[in-house]
Design goal:
By secondary structure, this protein is mainly alpha-helical. It has one domain: Orthogonal Bundle (Arp2/3 complex 21 kDa subunit ARPC3). Helix 2 packs across helix 4, helix 3 packs antiparallel against helix 4 and helix 5 runs antiparallel to helix 6.
């Protein structure tokens, strides 16, 4: 297995990375009006899975910086934007980790691992972003815990919807994308 997902050289890697960034932003805007339901995490995960850890993390940070920085419902800034970029960078990294863990295992194993790791990426993103505001605002420990408790239902919707996205979209789509990348003819 080629560590960068079958990519033969830097120009092709750059083209594929740019495509992931464009698709990630477009998919982000597609569902922007729907709270806590998104396809950005899945795109970032797929970039890491298909392009490798370095390109996947870079794509993911760029996707989130551009999407969250110019979000149609209100842009992020400061610590929140940093947390969002680190959170999505983690999704790209976990995509690359998933590719290595899955290897040539069965379809059931692949699907289970993609969903579990996708849920972990979503939880990581939510944890970082839910902590960013109370930390930036200087909340006490008690206030931070209260803030996290209030965010829990929204995080549950986000984690649950992403579990479904990873199960019904990402897991079936990745083998087809791998085949397209590794056998483009």
């Amino acid at each position: 297995m080629n560590p960068v997902g079958g990519i033969s050289g830097p120009p092709l890697l750059l083209t594929r990375a740019a495509s992931f960034v464009a698709v990630g932003i477009a998919l982000g805007y597609l569902l922007a009006p729907v709270p806590n339901v998104e396809l950005v995490t899945a795109t970032c995960f797929c970039s890491g899975y298909l392009l490798g850890s370095g390109a996947g993390v870079l794509c993911s940070v760029l996707i989130e910086a551009l999407f969250a920085g110019f979000h149609p419902m209100g842009s992020s800034f400061g610590l929140t934007l940093v947390a969002q970029c680190i959170g999505m960078g983690g999704a790209g990294l976990l995509g690359a980790v998933a590719r290595r863990l899955i290897g040539k295992r069965t379809s059931t194993w692949r699907t289970a691992m993609i969903v579990i790791i996708g849920v972990a990426a979503t939880f990581w993103f939510d944890l970082l972003t839910d902590l960013a505001f109370p930390v930036a605002a200087g909340f006490s420990i008690e206030q931070t815990i209260a803030s996290l408790a209030l965010a829990a239902p929204f995080a549950a919707i986000h984690v649950g919807s992403n579990a479904l996205v990873f199960l019904f979209v990402v897991a079936p789509l990745l083998p087809k994308l791998i085949q397209m990348i590794e056998n483009p003819h």
